[in-house]
Amino acid sequence: MTRHTPFPAYGSCCRRLESEGGGNGVRSVRVWARLLGVVQAVVEDVEFDEVEQVLVVAVRPRKASRRRCGRCGRRCPGYDQGEGRRRWRALDLGTVRAFLEADSPRVRCVEHGVVAAQVPWARHGAGHTYAFDDTAAWLVTHCSKSAVRDLLRVAWRTVGSIVTRVVADAEASTDRFADLRRIGIDEISYKRGHKYLTVVVDHDSGVLLWAHPGRDTKTLERFFDRLGAQRCAQITLVSADAAEWIATVVADRCPNAELCLDPFHIVAWATKALDEVRRQVWNAARKGGQKTVARDLKNARFALWKNPEDLTERQTATLAGIAKTNAPLFRAYLLKEQLRQVFALKGAEGIALLDAWLKWAQRSRLPSFIKLARSIREHRAGIDAALTHGLSNARVESVNTKLRLLTRIAFGFRSAEALIALAMLDLGGLCPPLPSRAAA
Ligand SMILES: [Zn+2]
């Protein structure tokens, strides 16, 4: 080793692992740097702290004289020595916890004022090295919560901070919003329905593009703000449910986009209308003293809801009974089924069938279906667009299902930002490769 800095803090309890001087010393310095995954840095000393039972590796940036702002990387004049020496947790070496230790001077940046100088081995403000951060981020998308915590010996909240900065870093270095054409927008609830996230998914790649707390005009506008006017103009199709706030913002921000209403939601409206009819005839039977009819109708709920191909034999029989004895309810059932057929057909055939369906619903003498026909007419442009382009929100729903599972894992991060970062790692394609390995 060329230079030695003794650490008085450890006193006599430290055992020096490094031999001084000579060729072996220089070679082992490089080996240590490789082991720790540090680049652009010089290993000055390695010691084992017997008290803490940790390995402490003294390092300095290779170009220590050329200081840069920790936040923006701009070359800056030095300011002071900050709070002196500090440590960064590195990946364990074998069974031993390891730390890098270095000076932590401050610089004066024209934009950011007095800040800690950049170090080549860790992100700004991080207490862990790049290698540690990236390993934690990789593990969190591949292992259980307890496996990550136990293996890395960190608190779960620390993992939340790590994924947040890893994702912020990845977002800053890639433009994931280039060439977007077809997107899906949806919302998900978490914390038992007390909190919401607005979610945007790329239909072409299937990845989660963006998520933000809230479900209103202002929240969604943030996404289009990030996109910028030019890239907004490139969007051709947007799928969503019939939420007014989504339609308003899309119409306002994406001049060339067609809004496709999610077929699943439209069919859900029909299922709701059908259930209203079932409840009406059931109530009428109950009040009229027809006990058996009322009981049968109550039990018919699932037979009416299910897709015909999924019915059990018994449910098929129930349905046949309704066909014989209860004309209005059976008519409601057929209306629901035919609307489902509209979306199964898609394209021009689907649109033609929808025209016929609207006429049929209109004269069905079933108030809930007459009302449904009115809603469908109001949203006709969006529904026709969905039929023409065959775009549903299914991809968004599948991302949402996975996101819902992540909200449980993220429980304990205590910040929506960390939850979103975790989602971006796992569903947004932002998970870094393990240190020193090529991206998969
Ligand atoms: Zn700066």
SSE diagram, text form:
Elements (H helix, E strand, L loop, with lengths): L13 E3 L5 H15 L4 E9 L4 E8 L16 E3 L4 E9 L2 E8 L2 E4 L3 E4 L13 H11 L4 H8 L3 H18 L8 E9 L4 E8 L5 E6 L3 H17 L3 E4 L3 H10 L4 E4 L1 H25 L3 H9 L1 H5 L7 H13 L1 H19 L1 H16 L4 H12 L1 H10 L4 H16 L6 H12 L13
Parallel strand pairs: 3-6, 9-12, 12-13
Antiparallel strand pairs: 1-2, 2-3, 4-7, 5-6, 7-8, 9-10, 10-11
The chain binds zinc ion (ZN).
Zinc ion binds next to loops.
Characterise the protein shown here.
With 440 residues, this protein is an alpha+beta fold. The chain has 3 domains: 124 residues, no CATH class; 98 residues, Nucleotidyltransferase, domain 5; 127 residues. It is 49% helix and 18% strand. It has 16 helices and 13 strands. Strands 1-2-3-6-5 form a 5-stranded mixed beta sheet. A 5-stranded mixed beta sheet has the order 11-10-9-12-13, sandwiched between helices. A 3-stranded antiparallel beta sheet has the order 4-7-8, with no helix packed on it. The longest helix is centred in the middle third of the chain and has 25 residues. It is elongated. The N terminus is likely disordered. The structure holds zinc ion. Zinc ion binds next to loops.
